[in-house]
From TrEMBL:
Coiled coil: none annotated. It comes from the Bacteria. Residues 1-27 are annotated as: Disordered. This is Phosphohistidine phosphatase. Gene3D superfamilies: Phosphoglycerate mutase-like (3.40.50.1240). Pfam families: His_Phos_1. PANTHER family: OS09G0287300 PROTEIN (PTHR47623).
Amino acid sequence: MRHAKSDWDDRSLSDHDRPLNRRGKGDAPRMARWLHSIDSVPDVILCSSATRTMQTADLMLPLWENRPKLTVCESLYLSSPETIFNLIGEALQSTSRLLVIAHNPGISSITSHLADQSIQMPTAAVAVFAGQDAEADQANRWQYQTWMRPKALPSLDDTQTDSQSL
């Protein structure tokens, strides 16, 4: 997953410290609900240490009844596809349902590599893969399932609020 839309208004902030904007704060919970709807709630989240990725995770976590373990990875901040690949491999030794929240261009590159097709990851987009005992060095054993971005989701039902657990 790429982090939700960030705010560029405060030029005094470093790139690492940029928060989410209003749209990003709405998109993250929408994607959490979508992951739940396709039975893809993770057990573990690997999250970049940047403010915008942490806020993305923080907005998603309360919506899941069984909250995933959140692991902050400094090395995911502006990471290369190889770094993401290696972190995925390490995490898959102890879990089978993983969500990585990171940045472009790395997240689009690793997604495209694993899917064996070009996939651009706009903000808050999620790509889903499935595999059986797939180690990081066995990417060919991962099956690309689907991809979603917030703009492609139908409008939310007004009766479902962001504070409701799924």
